[in-house]
Design goal:
2 domains, alpha+beta, 11% strand, eight-stranded antiparallel beta sheet
Length: 360
Amino acid sequence: MKLLDTLHRWTGGLIGLVLALLGLSGTILLYEHLWIGVPGASDPLRGDLASVAVATEKLMAAPGAQGIIYADDRFGLHQLRLEQDAGAYASQSGEIAARWASQWERPELWIFDFHHHLFAGDNGEWVIGIAGLAGLFFIISGAILWWRTRRTFQLRLWPRRLSRPSIVMHHRDLGIVVAPLLLISIITGTMMIFRPFALGVVAPFGPVAETAKALDPPKYKGGPLAAKPDYTAMLTEAHRRFPDADFRILSLPREDGDPISLRMKQPAEWLPNGRTTLWFDAATGELLGARDALAMPLGAQAFNTAFPIHASRVGGWAWRGLMTVSGLSLTLLGSLAVWTFWFRRPKAAKRSARAALVPT
């Protein structure tokens, strides 16, 4: 038990700040649709084919256009993605409402980048994934360590005093109360970072190999990107295939020969941007293939629920409130753990004095 306590304290002291910042940034992102101050953000959604096609043709004609994240029920503006991290918000008729040359000009973009990549791309994802696995260890070991002190349980939102004993007691008691919410947040977050971990979590829903194959995008090859792709024809074909689905993300190929991809969201999908996907030849606009998210293996469908649960895109305000409690609790627990470990550790003299009183 002493070894477990030591491991819990040291890993918390070393990685607690990362978890605290992830909790804080994640909580802020839960409400980003409410504080992005751009005219038209609250416009009602016009998802009909004609409106989307007109806006798409207009926006994709912009120099350097790379794709569009379409407006939805929460955010009434299209997001145009341009080269070199530039972008713009546009009304659903295709009129530009705001531009930026870098993500640093838009708080919602750099907070998102921090929460998902720590401003470090793939390397940052590895750090976040390791922090997530450490978070699981904290929850399990913390519950074991709390059991010894369960008779002294007192729920407090803030420590009685900012002394080390008070903070440690607060840490244990608050931690055990929010442990179920933290478990959900950390498991779903880590699933999106580490594919092997995610496959292990959804393994009860179906064969792992089948799930992994379903999640990997098919490898289609076509011609080079046409000078003026017929986006209206692509959207029309997509709407014909999935008439009840909303248009979510249009993406141009990253390399010559790669297809244009279009993601859609069917009503039964939880994932806000959907996983129903169509691929078109970038040269001719011919449909190369389509994937119905609702026909994917059960394991893949279970994986697709991780993000909407993590980002509270299901469950309405009640679930968003619970995820807010989870994020703020992680912020508080992580930051106070780091502070007590590095700045409120027992003095060496006091530790020696206590050791001298222990009979040998």
